[in-house]
Design a protein that fits this description.
The chain has 323 residues and is of the alpha/beta class. It has a single domain, classed as Spore Coat Polysaccharide Biosynthesis Protein SpsA, Chain A (Alpha-Beta Complex). Helices cover 42% and strands 16% of the residues. It contains 14 helices and nine strands. Strands 1, 2, 3, 4, 5, 6, 7, 8 and 9 form a nine-stranded mixed sheet that branches. Helix 6 packs across helix 14 and helix 8 packs parallel to helix 10. It is globular and about 55 Å long. The two termini are 35 Å apart.
């Protein structure tokens, strides 16, 4: 990208929600700072979500601005952390990066290049780092089959928040990430991204903006994460219309009834996505992936039944965190 295009980004903000990441956060910040474009200021904001280790000290020593959030009943809330970080940021664009994501060389330039072309929201890809355990690799394959580095660049309906950039004014014109449960920590980005699309904005997936995603190990984590995603699927996807198979969500009761048979179909679909990308290890993990999708189905059935029985829970009203 030429100097004239870079001049449009004098301050760039990177928001990192973080909780107990003292071992990794310093290295992530160092990699970010190494990619600062000439003539630009890179503002790194670590939003510490009640860590009990030395995360704050390590982040400050690496040169980040740290916003410490108070402890909450039930644990952390990455959606709230992202909103708080965006509220105090100064840059344009605002880039959201998870603390377990390590940027590749050229990551930042790839994001900025798409913004320079006029895209309001740009999402990067999630790569598979070396050394992950079997369960962590299975978690990666279950979650990131649409946003890996081998997929082609294209406009998309939505993009996960762990590697995501948005123009400042565009984001601040939305309500931000949904902080209420059960949406928060699962599909918290769908509402504001649907708002961007409704206003004529575009979301672009750029696979060259790569970060390695260090999925957590353990089959318990794998099953809990898929259950959580399933539990919030109906209230988040029906209200926003951002699901890839949106027609399924037009019939929520039928979807709840068919949630367990659909586990087989979704497992086959995920495996098909990886085979198309010429990655065959997921085929060997098919039994574990099916268990994960059954956990997703259990979450969809439980969350869907609760949502259908509680009409008042269908609206997740919240104010912009920068007002």
């Amino acid at each position: 990208m030429n100097a004239r295009a870079l001049a449009a980004f004098p301050i760039i903000s990177v928001i990192i929600p973080c909780r107990n990441e003292e071992a990794a956060i310093g290295g992530v910040i160092d990699r970010l700072k190494a990619q600062t474009p000439s003539g630009s200021e890179l503002e790194v904001i670590v939003v510490d979500d009640a860590s009990t280790d030395r995360t704050i000290a390590v982040a400050e020593a690496a040169g980040a601005r740290v916003l410490a959030l108070p402890a909450r009943p039930g644990g952390g809330n990455p959606a709230a952390a992202r909103n708080r970080g965006a509220a105090i940021s100064r840059g344009d664009p605002i880039i959201f990066l998870d603390s377990d994501c390590t940027p590749h060389e050229g990551w930042l330039q790839a994001l900025l290049a798409e913004h320079a072309k006029g895209y309001e929201v740009v999402g990067g890809s999630l790569g598979l780092p070396d050394g992950l355990s079997f369960s962590a690799r299975c978690d990666y394959y279950c979650g990131w089959y649409h946003v890996h580095p081998r997929r082609r660049a294209a406009s998309v309906l939505h993009h996960p928040p762990c590697n995501l950039s948005v123009r400042r004014d565009v984001f601040r014109a939305t309500k931000g990430y949904v902080e209420q449960q059960p949406i928060a920590y699962a599909h918290e980005e769908l509402e504001w991204q649907a708002d961007v699309l409704a206003k004529g904005g575009r979301i672009f997936f750029q696979p060259q903006a790569v970060v390695d995603h260090h999925n957590r190990p353990g089959f318990g984590n794998l099953l809990r994460r898929n259950y959580r995603w399933g539990y919030s699927a109906l209230p988040s996807k029906i209200s926003t219309g951002t699901a890839r198979f949106a027609f399924l969500y037009e019939h929520p009761r039928l979807l709840v009834l068919a949630s367990f048979p659909l586990a087989l179909a979704s497992t086959a679909y995920i495996l098909g996505c990886w085979i198309k990308a010429r990655m065959f290890e997921p085929v060997l993990m098919a039994p574990a992936m099916l268990l994960a999708r059954l956990a997703y189905s259990a979450g969809m059935a439980a969350g869907g039944l609760f949502w259908l029985r509680k009409p008042e829970e269908r609206a997740f009203e919240h104010r912009p965190r920068w007002e």
